[in-house]
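[Discussion] Sanity-checking designs against the backbone

I'm trying to build intuition for which residues belong where. Below is a C-alpha cell string of 321 positions. I'd appreciate it if someone posts a full sequence so I can compare it with mine line by line.
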C-alpha cells in the first residue's frame, strides 16, 4: 500500500466520526423519523446512528455481493468483516436486490437482522419485433456496460473467435479496459466485426437493433442491464455469476452447468463464468434456431414485467412504512 493510499484511508477513518455527528444532528434538527442508506459506507454510518438516536428507524440496503466486492484487498475484506456485523445489526431492517447477497451477508458477515429482497425496477417498454431471417446475414450481438475487468468483456471476444458465421458485435460503454479490448479484437482479427460505441444516452436504440444480448460478468450486484435488454424483447445469454442472473433467468432455482456447455433456463441461456466455448455454443444455438430466438425473446419480455416499477415500488413502501 503506497503513501497516497495510506493517507486516503487515514483521512476516511478520521472523517467518519465527523460525518456521523453531522448527520445525526441533521436528523434531530429536522425531526426525521426514517433514515435510509444505500451502499456500504453509508450503511455503516447509518448503523452508528442507531446508537445515538433510538427513535430513528434505520433502514440499510446492500447493493453488491460482499464476498467478491470487498475482496480486492485482504485488509479491506478483514475490515468489513469486522465492521459489518457490528453496525449492520444495529439497523431495524436490511434489504438488498438479491437473495444471494442476503445469504452472503448472513453466512460470511454475521448479519442476523431481518433481511428482505427488493429487486431493481425496470421501466415498461415496447416489445421488439424480430427482424432476423432464418439465416440472418446481419446478426447482431450486444454487450452494454462499463469496460473493466470484473465485467470480463474479453470473454465475448474469445467466443467470437470460435464462431464461423458472420455477425456484428457492439460494445456499448466506456471504461479502463477499452484500449485493451480494442487491441485484443485487432490481434484476434475481429476488429472488422467489433464496434466500440462508447457511452451513449440512447442505449435502447442499440438494443432494438440487436438480435441477442450477452452479459459476460464475473460478478454483479444485480444486473440492471440484463433486465433492460429483456424489457425490449431481446433473447439473452448470461454468465451464472453472483448475483442476479440466476434469479432473473431461472427464478433462483439452482442448476448445474457442465464445462463447455450452456443451460436453457426459464427465461434465457446461462453459462459458467469465463467459459468461452459454452458462450460460442450458446450464440450459435440462437443463431441457428430462429424459433428459439423468438420463443426466448417473448419469455424475456414477459419476465421483465415482474420487475416493473408498479410492482417494485409497493415493496419499498411497505418497508418504509
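Best answer:
Here's mine. Compare freely.
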Amino acid at each position: 500500500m503506497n503513501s497516497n493510499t495510506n493517507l486516503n484511508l487515514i483521512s476516511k477513518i478520521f472523517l467518519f466520526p465527523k460525518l456521523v455527528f453531522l448527520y445525526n444532528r441533521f436528523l434531530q434538527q429536522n425531526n426525521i423519523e426514517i433514515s435510509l442508506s444505500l451502499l456500504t459506507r453509508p450503511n455503516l454510518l447509518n448503523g452508528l446512528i442507531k446508537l445515538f438516536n433510538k427513535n430513528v428507524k434505520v433502514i440499510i440496503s446492500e447493493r453488491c455481493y460482499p464476498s467478491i466486492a470487498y475482496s480486492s484487498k485482504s485488509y479491506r475484506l478483514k475490515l468489513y468483516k469486522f465492521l459489518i456485523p457490528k453496525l449492520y445489526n444495529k439497523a431495524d431492517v436490511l434489504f438488498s436486490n438479491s437473495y444471494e447477497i442476503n445469504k452472503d451477508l448472513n453466512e460470511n458477515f454475521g448479519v442476523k437482522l431481518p433481511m428482505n429482497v427488493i429487486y431493481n425496477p425496470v421501466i415498461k417498454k415496447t416489445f421488439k419485433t424480430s427482424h432476423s431471417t432464418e439465416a440472418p446475414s446481419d446478426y447482431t450481438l450486444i454487450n452494454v456496460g462499463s469496460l473493466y475487468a470484473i465485467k470480463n468483456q474479453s470473454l465475448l471476444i474469445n467466443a467470437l473467435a470460435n464462431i464461423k458465421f458472420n455477425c456484428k458485435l457492439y460494445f456499448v460503454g466506456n471504461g479502463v479496459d477499452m484500449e485493451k479490448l480494442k487491441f485484443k479484437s485487432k490481434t484476434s482479427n475481429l476488429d472488422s466485426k467489433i464496434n466500440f460505441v462508447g457511452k451513449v444516452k440512447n442505449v435502447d436504440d442499440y438494443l432494438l437493433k440487436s438480435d441477442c444480448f450477452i452479459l459476460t460478468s464475473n460478478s454483479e450486484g444485480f444486473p440492471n442491464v440484463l433486465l433492460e435488454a429483456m424489457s425490449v424483447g431481446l433473447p439473452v445469454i448470461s454468465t451464472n455469476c453472483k448475483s442476479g442472473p440466476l434469479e432473473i433467468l431461472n427464478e433462483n432455482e439452482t442448476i448445474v452447468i457442465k464445462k463447455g456447455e450452456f443451460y436453457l433456463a426459464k427465461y434465457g441461456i446461462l453459462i459458467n463464468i469465463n467459459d468461452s466455448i459454452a458462450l460460442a455454443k450458446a450464440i450459435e444455438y440462437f443463431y441457428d434456431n430462429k424459433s428459439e430466438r423468438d420463443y426466448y425473446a417473448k419469455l424475456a419480455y414477459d419476465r421483465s414485467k415482474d420487475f416493473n416499477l408498479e410492482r417494485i415500488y409497493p415493496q419499498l413502501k411497505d418497508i418504509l412504512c
